[in-house]
Design brief:
This protein has 369 residues and is an alpha/beta fold. Helices cover 34% and strands 20% of the residues.
């Protein structure tokens, strides 16, 4: 039986609220419009890069922008301990930022592969050497593609609701049928929230429905949505020890996969986890949480992120006040052998180092309140 770290979090502090019930406001930021080979990207930077440290780079999901996707998390009080150590760059997909003008008729929106290819231009122009990426949904796919194509640029990834697979023909047919019977806002809401969430969590549902309908240009949103729906399979494979570690197409950096236990993305995230190298991948399944864990449970995610960056060798003295560690077991039986790494193994930090160094099985960290 494998070791599984069960983590309990208590004393969750309330979110900072604005008049709409959510904190989408930016603080102390610089905005840039960056020219790339595939168009202009709007980016927002918090802080200044700290020496040779990576910058935290975020990429949002469809129907959102960096404010509605990430500001609840980054404005959360405990997150400030992390942002004291790292600058943050928020990337808005083309045409998704607040107040974005509509694209001209016939505009060819970048593919998701091209959206990933735009990011190195941002890093070059902002003089950033490497990043720790945090992506949600479409943004998680784009940052995974970036890490596969430019492994030297990405030191670690936090992938929320990631789907590494192309849409199957059944999914395609279902989306076409939904397109005939539902409007774009309803389709995007179903992408973010489960049926139960749409019924039970009226406050957040109303907030995000109004945001998607009123704050995001609908024509631009349709272009981004169609681009993501046309994604290709990332074709990542779990390496076989002693056979293909150096040749297989997989992430080279530590990865923390995050999903709420009632999220519509659970199956996709579990599938992605099964394809990744278990020696540098952790699956974090958050209890009592749905499709937007960074919004609903920013305290839990902040604490997990602290462990993640500590596992990479950063912030060794950061306080860990909320996590209470205990030992339990996993039913996983897949094995692997860890190759040499330049930084402390991320899983050993996230799992509280309860297992010995020879335990390299796929890891699942269950989080509950």
């Amino acid at each position: 039986m494998d070791e599984l770290q069960d983590v309990q979090l208590t004393e969750i502090k309330p979110l900072l609220m604005d008049k709409n019930g959510r904190n989408f406001q930016d603080f102390d930021c610089q905005e840039h419009d960056v020219e790339t080979a595939h168009g202009v990207l709007h980016v927002t930077m918090r802080g200044t890069p700290k020496g040779n440290r990576p910058v935290i780079l975020t990429y949002h999901d469809i129907g959102l922008n960096h404010k509605s996707c990430f500001n609840t998390l980054f404005n959360f009080e405990d997150m400030q301990e992390i942002t004291q150590h790292f600058a943050v760059v928020h990337v808005d997909a083309p045409g998704q930022q607040e107040g974005a003008p509509p694209f001209p008729t016939g505009f060819q929106y970048p593919t998701v592969d091209e959206l990933a290819e735009m990011i190195p231009s941002i890093l070059t122009q902002l003089k950033i050497n490497s990043v720790i990426g945090i992506g949600v949904g479409a943004g998680a796919y784009i940052l995974t593609k970036l890490a596969l194509n430019y492994p030297a640029l990405v030191e670690g990834l936090v992938l929320i609701n990631v789907d590494s697979c192309a849409k199957g023909w059944m999914d395609w047919a279902a989306s076409k049928l939904s397109g005939w019977t539902s409007n774009l806002v309803d389709i995007v809401m179903a992408h973010h929230f489960s049926t139960d969430e749409l019924t039970d969590n009226q406050e957040i549902i109303q907030t995000y429905r109004l945001h998607i309908a009123q704050d995001i240009n609908q024509d631009n949103l349709a272009l981004f949505y169609n681009s993501y729906n046309a994604r290709r399979d990332l074709e990542i494979e779990r390496p076989v020890p002693g056979l293909n570690e150096d040749t297989v197409n997989t992430l080279k950096c530590p990865a923390l996969l995050v999903v709420g236990d009632t999220s519509p993305a659970v199956d996709a995230v579990v599938e992605c986890n099964s394809r990744l190298n278990p020696t540098n991948t952790t699956l974090l399944k958050m209890a009592d949480c749905g499709g937007l864990p960074q919004v609903v449970q920013p305290g839990k995610l902040t604490e997990a992120f602290k462990y993640f960056v500590q596992g990479m060798g950063y912030m060794p003295t950061a306080s860990m006040t909320r996590l209470v560690r205990s030992r339990t077991h996993s039913s996983s039986s897949m094995g692997s052998v860890e190759g040499p790494r330049s930084r402390t193994h991320t899983n050993s930090q996230l799992e509280g180092a309860t297992g010995g160094p020879g335990q390299n099985q796929p890891q699942t960290m269950e989080v509950s309140c």
